[in-house]
UniProtKB/TrEMBL annotation:
Gene Ontology MF, one: polyamine binding
Name of the protein in its database record: Uncharacterized protein
Keyword vocabulary terms for this entry: Periplasm, Signal, Transport
Superkingdom of the organism of origin: Eukaryota
InterPro entries named among the record's database cross-references: SBP, Sperm_putr-bd
Pfam families listed in its UniProt record: SBP_bac_8 (PF13416)
GO biological process, one term: polyamine transport
Locations listed in the record: Periplasm
Length: 318
């Protein structure tokens, strides 16, 4: 198994090893970034490559491109598995894709959920407020003059465009048709993206949090899994969930096209369903870090809890 560093707890890995006892071997490798895992799928290393693992973790944004590029294979017998039977409809819609990676109600199952969270904004109140800036309550506050050259964002074009759309009063996942119907147009959206880029000093999924800690930037747009630990450690860092809404993300287990743990080195290990079911047990689907990062599965009840935290009336509790 190849996972994002810190995404699988040491307790979970130990429990699974104990469950296997002496019947099989279990090895969990970790990579610093999901982009590193994707890069190994594209250009496999000779040894220890994610491309030959029984399962590799990818973000939901990577799933479609990986399928189109032929880097993955559908999860064997997923529709008949117990873990699939326990998933909510919203997870099933996300995980079933056609051969081009597009959502399909009749497509194969290309991934299994591991955890999900949202995109938040972390700000240094000892910097931003001290020098005349205003609190970040919505995405438009990222365009305030005091943040020019003092903002960091994850290195994700999808997040950049989503934030730009939100500052224009459009949905985070607005389509080209939505942009035209709103009277913004492609040129208007492009201008807003450029305006937002001028605010950003650092585009990085590695260095953005370090820049905030060092005071090089005063605010960061990032994923909850990265930002929550910083806010927990520092009284000078505040978290906000913009009132107009936040993007959600999910980390998924996928099966590389070159998985070699099965019989005669072909396909994934027959123990893969056991690992997926182990991770999706209800007892492990517990709230994490103040309800802003969850282990799968995402059902209607946990979705309601998640939204209650992000509701404007309760945003200050973050």
């Amino acid at each position: 198994m190849v996972a994002l560093r810190g995404a699988v707890s040491s307790t979970a890995a130990l429990d699974f090893r104990r469950a296997l006892r002496r019947h099989a071997r279990f090895k969990l490798e970790q990579r610093a970034q999901l982009a590193d895992i994707y890069a190994e799928l594209v250009a496999p290393r000779k040894r220890g490559s994610a491309a030959r693992a029984d399962a590799a973790m990818l973000g939901d944004a990577w799933l479609g491109p990986a399928i189109r590029a032929g880097l993955l294979q559908p999860i064997p017998d997923a529709l008949a598995s117990r873990w699939w039977a326990g998933l909510s409809p919203r997870w099933r819609r996300l995980l079933r894709r056609d051969a081009n990676g597009r959502l399909s109600d009749h497509g194969d199952v290309w991934a299994a959920p591991h955890r999900w969270g949202c995109t938040l904004v972390a700000a240094r109140k000892d910097k931003l407020l001290r020098w005349g800036g205003r609190p970040i309550r919505d995405w438009g506050d990222l365009l305030q003059p005091r943040l020019r050259g003092r903002l960091a964002m994850v290195d994700s074009p999808r997040e950049l465009v989503a934030v730009a759309l939100a500052t224009l009063g459009l949905p985070l996942n607005a389509t080209a048709a939505d942009v035209l119907m709103a009277g913004v147009g492609v040129d208007g959206l492009r201008a807003r993206v450029d305006e937002l880029r001028q605010q950003v000093r650092v585009f990085s999924s590695r260095e953005h949090t370090r820049a905030l800690a060092a005071g090089d930037v005063w605010a960061v747009v990032g994923w909850s899994g990265d930002l929550l630990p910083i806010a927990e450690r520092s009284a000078n860092v505040t978290l906000s969930a913009p009132v107009s809404g936040v993007p959600l993300w999910a980390d998924l287990w996928t099966v590389p096209a070159g998985a070699s743990g099965g019989s005669q080195g072909r396909g994934p290990s027959p123990l893969l369903p056991a690992w997926l079911e182990f991770g999706l047990q209800p007892a492990r689907a517990e709230r994490r870090r103040g309800m802003l990062e969850f282990l799968a599965p995402l059902d209607e009840d946990t979705a309601a809890l998640h939204w209650s935290v992000l509701h404007p009336e309760q945003r200050d509790s973050l």
